[in-house]
Structures are given as C-alpha cells and as structure tokens.
Amino acid sequence: MAEAHQAVGFQFTVTPDGIDLHLSREVLKHIYHAGVTSWRKRAIRFKNGILTGVYPASPSSWLFVVIAIMSTMYARIDPSMGMIDTIKRTLPVSDYMTMQSHTVLSAVLFATGLWFSLILMLRYILKALLSYHAWIFESHGKMSFSTKLWLNLLKMFSGRRPLLYSFQASLPRLPVPSVDDTIRRYLESVHPLLDDKQYNQMEVLANEFKTDQSPRLQKYLILKSWWATNYVSDWWEEYIYLRGRNPIMVNSNFYAMDLLYVTPTHRQAARAGNVVHAMLQYRRKLERGELAPVMTLRALGVVPMCSCQMERMFNTTRIPGIETDFVQHLSDRKHLVVYHKGRFFKVWLYYGGRHLSPSELETQFRKIIDDNTQPQPGELKLAALTAGNRVPWAQARLKYFNQGVNKASLDAIETSAFFLTLDDEAHGYDPDKLRSLDLYAKSLLHGKCYDRWFDKSFTLIAYTNGKLGVNAEHSWADAPIVGHMWEYVLATDCFHLGYTDEGHCRGESTKGLPAPVKLQWDIPLECQEVIEDSYMVAKEIADDVDFYGYLFDEFGKGLIKKSRTSPDAFIQLALQLAQFRDKGKFCLTYEASMTRMFREGRTETVRSCTSDSTAFVRAMEDKSTTNTLRLDLFRKAADKHQNMYRLAMTGSGIDRHLFCLYIVSKYLNIDSPFLKKVLSEPWRLSTSQTPQQQLNMVDLNKFPRYVGAGGGFGPVADDGYGVSYIIVGENLITFHISSKFSSPETDSYRFGQNIRQAMLDIRALFDQKEKN
C-alpha cells in the first residue's frame, strides 16, 4: 500500500468540519516540471516551424522588408505602385486610428505580402536549381562552367543554417519518364539474360504494350504526378509492403550491427542505458527539426535529400489487417517496452519533465534483468504473432486483444517509443570464433522468432556481453534512414556519454523512480495455439536462412579510387563475376538506389547485369583474352553501371515507372501481358550498399577501430542471394550474404569466397597494368 500512496498526488478525507485536503508536494512538483517541459517543447517546435516555413528567407528578413518600404514612403516614393493606397481604402475606418496609422498599417500589410511573394519566388528559384542534374553525370574531379555557375547560385539561394525540413517545400517532384525511354532501357537490361527467341518474344510484347495500352496508362500516371507529391511512394508503401500477407520477419525486415571491433562496456544494462538515452536525444532533435538536412556527398554537399521518411522513426508501429496493414504513427510517446526472458515490461522515459539519464535507465534495466518472475501463460512466444503470417495475427488481434488487460498491454507495446530486447545470449564479431558474424546476423535478423516485436518501427537488441543491434520494419522507411540514426547513437554513446572505469553509465541515479511495470496478459488456450502456429511458421523461415558475413580487408576504396573507378561499380562487377562462377549463368540483378533528391522519394532499381558487364565476365573466364582487353571491358562496364545509377537517382529509372503503370492497369482492369511478365521476373541477386552519411561524427584517422559493420537483409528469391555491403574507411569492405539452405543451387559461404576471389582477380588487372 505504501507504493500506491506515493503515486497519489492528492488525498482528501471527509470530516464533520468539512473536507481535509492533503497535497503531495513531490508529485505536484513533477507535474509542474512536466507542464513546463511540454510548453517549452511546443514553443521550440513553433519557432522551428516558422523558420522552416519561411525558408530560405528568415523571420528577420520580414522586418528588413517593412523598414525598406517605410523608408521609401518617407522619401515620398511609392514602391507599391498605388497598392498601399488601395489597401488603405479597403481597411475599415476606426476612431482609434489616425490617418497616419492607417498609412503605416497599409504599408506593413503590403510589405508582408511582398515578403511572402519573395519567399515563394526564392523557393521557386531554389526548386528550379535543384531540378538541375547535369552535375551528377560529369566526370569525377571535372566541372563544367554551367555546373560551376549552378553551384554558386545554389549556395546563394540555399540560405544559412538550414534545419531538417527546411528544403522540403523546395524539392522538385519526381518526374514521370517517357514510356519509350523506359521500354528501351528495359529491353536493353534483359537482352543479356534471354536467348534470341525469348528476346524477340519480349520485344513483341513490349511494342504491343507501347502502342496499345501505355498511352492511356501514362496519362493517368502524369495526372497523378501533378496532383500527388510523389507518384510512386504511396503505392510503393501500400502494395510492396503493407498488402503483403507473408511474414515480414526475414522477408521484409532488415538489421544493423554494432561497432565491429569495439565494445565500450560489457555491462548489458549500462550499454542499453546509454544507447536508449542517445536515441531519446536524437528523437528530440528530430521532433524539433533541429537535425541538419542530409546532403549528397558530391557537389560539395549542397544538394539536400528528402527527410520525410524520418518523421516516422519513433512512436510507430505496423498494425496488422486482414487485407492490408497500416502504419500507426503517434506523437511524443513517453514510455518504452522491454522484453526479457519471456516477460514484457513498461518503462517510463521521463521523470520530472525530463528524459531519464543514462544511469537512471541502467538502473531500470538492471531491475528487469534481476526480476526472476516467470512468463505468464502464452507470454513467452507472444511476439511470434508478429513473425508469422499477417492474416492469423490480424484475426488474433481482433479476437483476443480487443479488450481487458490484453488490449491495455498490447496498446502499451504499440504506442511505445520503440521496443527493446534485453537478450539472454551473447553475440558480436569475434575473430577467434568461427562464423561469429554469421550467428550475430541471424540473431539480429530473426532471433528466436519470438523475442523481437517485428511490427515496431525498430527493435533495439542488447546482448549480455554489451553488444547491440537493430531490427527494423521496412514499410515506413528505407535502410539509410535507420542508418542515420544508428550512426548518431553509436557516436554519442562512445564519444559523448561514455562510461565509468567499472563500465557503468556516468552520473547519479535519482532515487524513487517508478519501477518498471510488468505487463499483464490473459491469453486463452485457443490464442496460445495461434501463437504456436505462427512460431512454427517463423521458425521454419529462420532455420532456412543461410548466412555468411565476410570482412574483406585485402584492399578498400582507397586503392579502388586510385584506379579511377567507382567503388560501387567495382563491387557490382565483382558480384557479377562471382554470380557467374557460382551458378554458371547470369541473372536479373537488383541494386537499390535512392530518389531522395525528389520530394518523398524512396528507392529505384539499378539493373546491374548489363551487356557490358556480361562481356567483361566472359572475358575474365576466357583464358585466351588478354588483360588489356579485360581492363578495357571492365572500364566500359563500370562506366555503364555508373551512368545507370545516375539515371536512377535522377528519376529516369525503369522499375518504379513500370510498377506504377501496372498499378494503374489494375485500377482500369486492363490486362497487360507485358507488365505481368515484367513484374513476375525474380531477382536472384539482390544487392544494396549501406551508405555512411555522417562522416564527421567519428574521425577514423584518430579512431580506426570505431568502424561499423553495416547491416543486411534476407534472401529475396528462393534460389537466389541477398548481398549487402558497406565500404568502411579506406581498407575495409564488409559483406552480408544471405540465401536459403533449402535451395540446392545456393551456398552463402561459397558465394562469399567467390566474391573475394573476384575482387582479387579484378585488382590483379590493375596491378598487371602498373607493372607493364
């Protein structure tokens, strides 16, 4: 009862003399601080909203315009060409205002209108400048006069100290490519994969589509591009992610790893405390819009990228539905849900109107770890519902979690800031343990199938040895968005928050913090059977994942750049060579590119298997071919790849256009054999590069061991490979390779060794040239 009384802010007793009121000063003090913090947060958001709303101008520029207009009036010059007099005649006459006051008010209103017009004009100019993409097609280190002029104008009109969302209104819309260009590029991409008969058949289908069906579909798509902010993104989220009824674990979710070589502390609760606090700092900056906008690395970092995906990073959950899921995003959630050994706990993140400190969070997590209570019936594997098929989960949610304690506990999870798993295993890269990176990746990707809440925007995973990782749901955003947050968190953890000599979080922990609350469940046997069924489905998927992680440290981007080749093109050609050696044939290859230079842009596909890349690979496998010819073919293939990547980034890709044409055809009940064929083709080699976006946060020259390991994803095709890679520093490339044990055609370890040998063989071409 003592704990219950401490939670009461006031008590009253009815006596013969009236009501005796007792107030708790401590609780009222916390209520007061919470209110002050809330209003301060609103004020900061309001201020930053104004700064973003008037960008690239500033609020102070309004005063400058007003003073300028007033000065010209006193000089008996009318810059408004009679508009001030018109406004003055329109204003109602008041006994409280003199004629001079009317004139001043009219001038201020005119100046304000002029100021808004100038803002719109500046935004239009900025949007026109950001629509210029010729710079991206120029050779590295070379810049034309027009690009130099564009760059200076862009710097001039971009304003100073932009906030996260300052450029959003100035970003151009994603253009709709012409059908002729898309079909031409598509046929070019499949030509090396088809024999003459198959290619001729595809060409006939493509030409029939271009002539008969595409004009009508394209008109609707152009209409949507005029009306909607982005003609792709909403359909991409809905039809690629949310309407899928298969499990999202492995098939959709992806993961990110901790630092490769460094573990700041081996205390699980302390590491979790620091990182959760760093995430709350990031969330505060994100909600206030105080983060710097992400810029492209080229063009001196002045081309902004869309930040809209970042809005749903926290307080977000994918909610299952019978036919389609939906993404639920809330504002400023003040609690976290923690999973540990089959129990769920609710932990408050605020105390007295402030974030809990790292040491306070460590104390809370330590209490959870020390709690020896057993899971309630059905609680241990409850999260397996999020790992299995979507329809059984949606049905169970409606039937068993719609009222009572089950609804309250599920609401606590789905409305939490994010989800934390205090894992009961130890993982991480250990060079002394065979395939430690493989087990680490599989744990992050699927765990035990019931110890991550796969529907949350992301699950933070803290292992017993102090290592960390993240499992992220894919519908709300793409990997670089999570990567941006993760880079900030790891750098803040290691270089700003730090630990004591004993490995604990720094600072003192406030006494009297509300203890973590164990969530209560009343799960009937019928629901437990559904949970077990989902678990078995998920376990079969997880057990089938064949993973191989490989650290390629023979050379890195430093040596590749010396050969005047794009590191990404170099790796992609090595992957093509490895694929051919692995299977003896080429396949449709997916490389993820981004379209975030456009408003609400997400991704586009680069079809990396080209006629030029296949010619290079065949030359590498032909012993009679000279190294000189092989090198020439390599450079031609690398240039082709770079050009395709640039086309994808600038809105001239193939696959998103074809996807949207297919969606329109379904709405209009138009049957298109060509579009059906295109969208049914399997991607047997799916690849993605994990970008490093905040290179200024860690100086790798001073701290060479503080490198990230990147992240990865599951195989896309049953008989194919998923390959993610991150280029770290000058001398390290980490590969994450996934496939399925059930496929007799794939072996992740074998493919990893083929990649290594392909990288070395391509380097040998350049070494041979230098010797000659």
Describe this structure in words.
The chain has 772 residues and is an alpha+beta fold. The chain has 23 helices and 20 strands. The strands form five sheets. The protein has an eight-stranded mixed β-sheet, with helices on both faces. Strands 14-20-19-17-15-16 form a six-stranded mixed β-sheet, sandwiched between helices. A two-stranded antiparallel sheet has the order 1-2.
Share of helix among residues? Answer: 40-55%
Low-confidence stretches: 1-10
Shape, per Cα inertia axes:
globular
Could you tell me the mean pLDDT? 90
Number of strands: 20
Strand order of the largest sheet: 13-7-6-10-11-12-3-18
Ends apart, CA distance between termini? 86 Å
Give me the number of helical elements: 23
- Write down the Rg: 29 Å
Report on the biggest sheet: 8 strands, mixed
Strand content: 5-15%
**Class computed from helices, strands and strand pairing:** alpha+beta
Oligomer: single chain
Membrane topology: Multi-pass membrane protein
GO molecular function, one term: carnitine O-palmitoyltransferase activity
Transmembrane segments: 50-75, 104-126
GO cellular component, one term: mitochondrial outer membrane
Q: Can you describe this structure in just a few lines?
A:
This is Carnitine O-palmitoyltransferase 1, muscle isoform. Helices cover 47% and strands 13% of the residues.
Task: Set down the secondary structure blueprint.
Layout (H helix, E strand, L loop, with lengths): L1 H5 L3 E6 L2 E6 L1 H29 L5 H16 L8 H8 L8 H32 L14 H13 L21 H12 L5 H32 L5 H10 L11 E4 L10 H21 L27 E4 L6 E4 L5 E6 L2 E6 L1 E2 L2 E2 L2 H13 L19 H11 L3 H11 L4 E4 L13 H10 L12 E5 L5 E5 L6 H19 L19 E2 L6 H19 L1 E8 L4 H6 L4 H17 L5 E6 L8 E5 L3 H11 L5 H23 L5 H13 L5 H8 L4 E5 L21 E3 L7 E8 L3 E9 L7 H24 L1
Parallel strand pairs: 6-10, 10-11, 15-17, 17-19
Antiparallel strand pairs: 1-2, 3-12, 3-18, 4-5, 6-7, 7-13, 8-9, 11-12, 14-20, 15-16, 19-20
